[in-house]
Write a structure and sequence with these properties.
Largest sheet: 8 strands, antiparallel
Helix content: under 10%
Shape: elongated
Oligomer: single chain
Strand content: 25-35%
Order of helices and strands: HEEEHEEEEHEEEEEEEEEEEEEEEE
Radius of gyration: 28 Å
Structural class: mainly beta
């Protein structure tokens, strides 16, 4: 009878079998390998988004076309630096995320730093890629039914000893996790790890995409933009932190698509920076019911709607508007610069100035009343 031979043990199997017994960390949600997140920061976040969660980095290292930044909690993220100014490009999404000491978080299955490689294999199957040396081990996991992506676990030697089979560093790359997907405000369908479909400024201008939620403020509640960037706020999914009442507290307003349904009675969908995405704002009527104290009823020049906006300090006849260069004429109206009951209007052939509005029953204090625009029920006073 022929002898029965045992199947040869592969290097991967030998590695797993030689790792220490599996002892897991207390279960937590501070590390999510499937989503590529650690401490609230995720692969695919911009630098502004990461700062809103982790604060300022302790150090950044510039390479030829990328910047790698480290945070005190033991999280490192890398961003593109195509213009080579040694700063992450505006709107660039992080390319990878690593956790190292002193990071002390864990996954929902108890994986984290200091845990045996055997635990990772028990959860995600044998490594799909393994690199072994006397001083360094790199094992890439993933690809089985539990996890479609891939992440790498590193085991470094210490004090001249061989690697001990426990995780010293974990890295997740951008291509290994669900992408930061684009979305529609009306039907977001965002994944749980990035539940908020929000309008932010990226490399291609303003666009809606799925982002992690930074808070859960309700509609009408006061809100903040931690990095002073549009769309990066602490409003709940479906809401936008709107600044039309600044410097009064900003408020969470419902997102909408300009020209589509979604806003209630007495509201208008007002575009955000000229994009197809807007927010629902309460309308008002010029010369009608007054706005709350400190606000002024001003035309948006979109949908012929007027809304209550914050009043500014500029008096009748003073220049106003958003200027690209101090020495050039302003090109965009800024109604929040003018005093109550004044609007930032550009007369034909002129520049934007704070002007009195008028109609047949509200004559000009100075000048003549001229039509404002097609469909408007009021005009402006021109000296």
């Amino acid at each position: 009878m022929p002898a029965v031979t045992s199947p040869a043990v592969t290097p991967v199997q030998a590695f797993v079998n030689g790792a220490p017994p599996c002892v897991r960390l207390p279960k937590s949600t501070t590390l999510d390998l499937e989503a590529g997140c650690a401490g609230g920061a995720c692969v695919g976040m911009t630098m502004a988004e990461v700062k809103s969660v982790l604060g300022e980095p302790t150090n950044c290292d510039a390479f030829s076309t990328s910047v790698s930044c480290q945070w005190a909690v033991g999280v490192t993220l890398q961003f593109a630096d195509i213009n080579q100014d040694k700063l992450p490009d505006v709107g660039a999404e992080s390319e990878y995320l690593s956790v190292d000491r002193p990071f002390n978080g864990a996954t929902g299955t108890g994986l984290g730093l200091g845990v045996s490689m055997r635990c990772f294999a028990e959860t995600y199957g044998d490594p799909v890629n393994l690199s072994l040396s006397r001083s360094f081990v790199s094992a890439s996991f993933g690809g089985n039914r539990n996890f479609l992506g891939r992440f790498s676990v590193y085991d470094f030697s210490g004090n001249g000893e061989n690697p001990d089979g426990r995780a010293d560093s974990i890295t997740v790359f951008q291509g290994s996790v669900p992408p930061v997907k684009s979305c529609r405000i009306a039907a977001p369908n965002c994944p749980a790890e990035r539940p908020k479909c929000t309008l932010t400024e990226g490399l291609n201008g303003f666009e809606a995409s799925c982002k992690p939620s930074l808070g859960n403020k309700a509609e009408g509640e006061a809100c903040t933009q931690p990095t002073n960037e549009t769309g990066i706020d602490d409003c709940a999914p479906g809401l936008h932190c709107s600044s039309e009442t600044a410097p009064l507290p900003m408020r969470c307003r419902r997102y909408c698509e300009v020209g589509g349904p979604g806003c209630g009675v007495g509201e208008a969908c007002v575009s955000i920076f000229g994009s197809p995405v807007g927010r629902c704002l309460t309308t008002c009527t010029v010369f009608g019911a007054p706005c709350p104290e400190g606000l002024s009823c001003a035309g948006t020049h979109l949908n012929n709607a007027s809304i209550c906006v914050a009043a500014g300090p500029k008096a009748l006849g003073e220049s106003c508007g958003t200027c690209q260069q101090p020495s050039q004429p302003c090109t965009v109206a800024s109604n929040d610069q003018c005093q109550v009951d004044l609007q930032c209007i550009q007369p034909p052939g002129g520049s934007f100035v704070c002007s009195q509005v008028c109609d047949p029953t509200h004559p000009c204090r100075v000048g003549t009343c001229f039509p404002l625009e097609s469909g408007a029920t009021y005009g402006f006073c021109k000296p």
